[in-house]
Amino acid sequence: MNKRGFTLAEVLITLGIIGTVAALTLPVLVEKHLKNVTATRLKAFNSIMAQAFQRAKLEYGDWNNWESNNFGESGSLKGDGEKQLLWLQKYLLPYIKTTETIAKGKYAIVALPNGSGFSNYNSLYFFCVKYSDCQKEVEEYNSRDRFIFQFTSRKGFEPYSIGWKGTREEFFIRNSAGHLCAKGKRQGGLCAKLIEYDGWEIKDDYPW
Question: DUF6613 domain: which residues (predicted)?
Answer without folding.
Answer: 29-207
